[in-house]
């Protein structure tokens, strides 16, 4: 792996951990409003993001490469209603997808076959992440039209 790609992966570890921060904050927001199911849904999401970061870190380690644990700023976003974090999540996942695609592009340009192979998992994972985020918005709209927020929260708790 080139130093160029190693640095991008180092930044990606930070982005994944920042995603975990963001989802923990969203989980907190729902918990603060008594929505335990949605709280649990986002906590699981946050744990997945930590796993994404660890997977990148392990990959560097396997290659005998070191990395810095870069600082993570707290999320500054505040939410006005229960739908907003769901939309924000989808937007955020789209940004992460573009970062993963950039990593893949660089790996290809550098003929780094091992990294390409490794990154393929993240490419598929992002398809799933965006689908899950879009599904949550769909569920919210569906339940709000029919049974209301508690039914939505109950459904989110089933993840
Ligand atoms: Fe992630
Ligand atoms: Fe994600």
Notes on the protein architecture:
By secondary structure, the protein is an all-alpha fold. The protein has one domain: Up-down Bundle (Ferritin). It is 78% helix and 0% strand. It contains five helices and no strands. The radius of gyration is 17 Å and the shape is elongated. It starts with a helix and ends with a helix. The mean pLDDT is 97.
Give a quick account of the main beta sheet: strands, pairing sense, barrel closure. none
CATH topology value: Ferritin
What's the helix-strand series? Answer: HHHHH
Radius of gyration: 17 Å
* The named CATH superfamily: Ferritin, core subunit, four-helix bundle
Tell me, rounded to a whole number, the average pLDDT: 97
How many helices? The count is 5
Query: Architecture, according to CATH?
Result: Up-down Bundle
Strand content: under 5%
How would you sum up the global shape? elongated
Terminal-residue CA separation: 37 Å
Low-confidence stretches: none
Number of separate strands: 0
Bound molecules: fe (ii) ion
Count of all domains: 1
Structural class: mainly alpha
Roughly what percent helix? over 70%
Q: Which CATH class applies here? A: Mainly Alpha
